[in-house]
Queue: 2 jobs
Job 1
Amino acid sequence: MRFSLKHLLLLVGLGVLVVAPLGQGNYIVYMLCSWLIFSIAAMGLNLTLGYAGQISLAQASFMAIGAYTTALLTLAGWHWVVAMPIGLVLCFVVGLALGFPALRVRGHFLAFVTLAFNTLVFLVARNEDWLTGGTYGKFGMPRPDFGIVSTDSQLNFYYFTLIVFVIAAALMWGIVRSPWGRAFRALRENPIRAESLGIDTRRLTLLAFAIGSVYGGLAGSLVSPLVQFIEPGSFAVIHSLRILLMVVVGGAGFFYGPMLGAAVVILLPEVLRFTEGYYLILYATLVIVLMVFCPSGLIGVGSRIRDKLWSRTRDRGDLKQGAQL
Amino acid sequence: MNALTPVMSVRGISKQFDAIKAVDDVSFDVYPGEILGLIGPNGSGKSTLFNCILGQLAADRGTVEVGGQAVSNKRSCDLSKLGIGRTFQQLSVFPEMTVLDNIIVAGQEHEGTMISRLFGAPDAGLTEQAEQMIAFFRLSHLRDEQAGSLSYGQQKLVDAAMAFMAGPNIVLLDEPAGGVNLTMLAGLKERLISYNREHATTFVVIEHNMEFVMSLCTRIIVLAEGAIIAEGTPDQIRSNQMVIDAYLGG
């Protein structure tokens, strides 16, 4: 494997993530953890929406399933390492079930189905207080302890989250660059043609929902020990819309899009806090401007800048030969 | 030729949309290695028949057998696995993928299992084969271009190359010549004939371009108002009075 500029940038990026929390206060480290966690949730939605083209407004509900499962089990004395996979399996199964409507309805109809599902999960979390604690939620979840290293301190929890994030991102990279990734893109671009080429679009649609949901569940299972308090409002529809915003702002269907999008949605409001009462107005304006001028998101902005600085203008293969075939 | 066992048998296919009979009790056999043309005026039921054969429309009546196996209720992904490829009347490439990726995705589902495709090579080991297919259709200079950026005719060629990538036994081509310029059309016909001879692949072709279909096909079936009105060699069809009256004109 050749060492390229991409590999170098990846190493620099990882280095920045390692040193980013050093010397920072608890709040900043907490925000960085939130960014990593929401990046995981957005990565999952990016697979469902960006790669496979299936709209979902229910990612926060899978965070809820992951978070509540982890909370209930860790409060019952189970280790996070055992509780988390149980949450993920649950998310996979529920995500698979949520994928079935996508076999019959598409576009905004599917969006409404998933939105209704998110509302359903929210209502269950709020009303079934024997299980979820109702509006009081669950609190006091322990952070994972690995014997020689405990994640009780904010910094240690950050590094723990970073390790989970890197593993999740590597697995996602493996999926999207495999033939599955190509099949997901085929499903997004032309499902009828994809099916005629032997791609089982039903199975693939279900898998897109199930895998995306697992990433939502993983993010939820990290929220639980990070905040050590969860309640239904943390997983309402508005949070699914925030995750959708992360994917769209970052660049749907691009691997690094969700991470950039999560940075904008989680970190930008904090950066703009110096403007006091104007920060939300500024934040909203920046997002609107971005969407109007670059619908392909921040990755699209990056490509435009790159093309301006290092012009990649070239003739298309057939035009080089002087005439179109 | 008719002494051979058919590779595909269509028996009594009918399809009605409200009061309109789109396909009316159509039966025919397709024999190994032949290039069968399906012609007829607009609205004669050619594409509906294609879609019924390929499982994209449920026929009201009738059956389709491929290699002796009933495939009437099979999904098009299953038909692809049984060795049936197809092209579409409309442009049907994956526009945001490169030409190479379009061709690889057309073959990858026929390699290994779903799990092996997840953990195997990103190209499913198909790059070399895909490049050969691209070269066969004389698209090598466009290998890394986005399929959506190509001209209409070039996308038609990519579409055809995709249909052949999995090495099908039968390929159903829906108006392959539609919108393709004359130079490219000659190239396409030559490619199709060459592929047919090299691989003994059977073709069923829907086409309006009479010159193209008469010079490409070995046998032609003529549809009018959903029913077969004539069947024969190109020369027999040209001189059939019923076909001239219904379709070819004086």
Job 2
Amino acid sequence: MILTFKFLRKAGYSLGCQWTIFCPLARLSFAQCTPRMHSSSYRRPGVLPDNTPPWKNVDFNFKKSIEEVKKHFGLLKKEIVDHWTGPEGRPLIEHLLEQTRVIWEFRSQQDLEQWVVSSDQEIGGKSETYLKLSKNSQTALLYGTLNTSVPHDGETRYSGYCSLRSKMPQGAFNHRKHHDWSSFNALHLRIRGDGRPWMVNLGTEMYFSHQKDDLYNYFMFTRGGPYWQDVKIPFSKFFLSSRGRIQDDQHPAWLDKINTLGFTLGDKADGPFQLEIDFIGVCIDRAHTEEFAYEKYKRNP
Amino acid sequence: MKCVRVLLPLLARDSYGDPLALGQAWGLRRTFSCAQTPNMCLSRGFRTSMRKPTSKPAPTKREEEAQPNPKSLVTFEDPFKRFDQDCRNKATFSHVLNVFCKKDVRRRGHVEFIYAALQKMPEFGVERDLRVYNALLDIFPKEVFVPQNSIQRMFNHYPRQQECGVQVLEQMERYGILPDAETKFLLLQIFGQKSHPFLKYRRMMYWFPKFKNINPYPVPYPLPCDPVDIAKLSLQRISADLDARITVYQMPSVEEKTRITHPYIVGIQSPDQQSLLQKHSPDRPVYVEGPFPLWLKKTCVYYYLLRAELLPPGEKEEEEDIDPERNFYFPMQLDLDLERDLGDDDSFDVNEVEEGPVFAMCMVGSEDQATLAQWIRGLQETNPILGHIPVVFRLESGPLKIQAETEMEETYEEEALQSQKLKQ
């Protein structure tokens, strides 16, 4: 019996993104229903934990389930055909000679749907973030207001961030896929900002579950002004942090298991901000041979 | 803060049945000196002190029941609030620290005092002063919290005090203050080699210098006070061209007789932009657009652009082809395929975002059309073609206007479409 479950699970950190899980067997669906990357143990102070049992969250809709079945079998078919064609659905010669790859570009509304915006409203702050296509509908415009006023809940001490994050790639039947950027060594972005510094976050697949808050970060400085700016960030520069704290033992990111890419603004300056993104790609910088920019030996013993 | 919270039940018990006192107790939560009142301080002294504390020890429960404390309302004075807003500066802040240090040899309640002082630092304007942070760390009694034996070293020795020390360092980190040698010696003296505050110090000393100079567009700190200097700085930053020339069209001044203020006008134009403007056809208008925001750390400035719309695709000017017969001896045009190797194509497979050219940028002191028209008039001296091109002002409501309108709860977008030919 084929069932479709829609788990309206309030994933705290990820804007309450809805986890639509399709699974041929109910048993398997429960095994999968714990969102691993996008969930967080964060709970707002003063809010009671959500103790509703998982079967209460099931929203059964026959029409939707038919659509889901169609979608997932379509994806399955595409995956099989892609596998026959070559790695990642392209011929082998193209894959081998590839020097640059455009991962995300912003030319239509569908491209924006691969992204999630969030701000400190999740923790009770007052910042606002919006994402839309810019005037010529060729680029994405992330805009809003940053507000560093701290919510009065007695525990939160800092506030004021806005972020944009890509959704995790998912294959047929919502199995987990990862971006494989191991043949590249630099991230290339074409942006236009307003002079504020941003932080680029790489979320990678980690081995243990307690590493789910780990991110690789680096800074992205915008010049401001009317001209576009090409930013190239080598992957070796990204440093490991967990829950916003730099970690002592650093190691390079696993580039074959990239889940998400995000941008965070938190420069403690109240006011409006904007960031236009043309495209995000990866490339090989042959002049850059550095493996990792930070010391990998154990410090602070 | 938690320390105070622990003490709160004590306070509440003292003033049981008196809701006013209880309310005041909650009001005291963020302050420090409730731990200093004699009947509430912990009876245990610091470890090195062999003498009994001079103040009275905490009364036992039986005593309390026997005779309720007549002083249920505790008088208390916040030393930071003694100073008005006018005289809050570094001198008064260090004065408060000195007074606290001299009050009690044992520095009773220093953790709460340091937490309170950390909160007050931005009000006194000393949040970016390393010496004040060192003075704050100096409040901790020395060599009391250093673990003496292996058992103490194994467990978290004096955790509240260590947390407090970490908080001081975290606030330094937040404001971007790099600790110096004095901080190091103070931390070593207070907490010892293997303590959390010292670990935090070492982390800061490792990571701060790494990211100190990575900003390719640095902003001087502090920013210059003169708006003309700020305008020059920011225009040079956004022009992205080292050849660009800055022109100050008008310095800020006030006429004595008529009381007319002349706002400053600072513009920038690069030779490339100048030649682009030369090629612009006089049939198409150019636009003055703005204001656009630019952030220099925490200050926001606004700039205006002189630009043209993108040509419609049908009317794109074809570049003149040089026919190969023009010169028989050597080719006038070289079209070599200089790719390094098979597949070495470093370009990205995206459609170029095409936008209209930018001809000049400026920053002005007041956001009205007359000032910008004056800028255009100044531009005409170097770009005579501007006299023949119609200039359209497309100004959005600027930040100053927005502030005025939020009171009216109305937002409207002003599009001043006034085509005017400026002729000398």
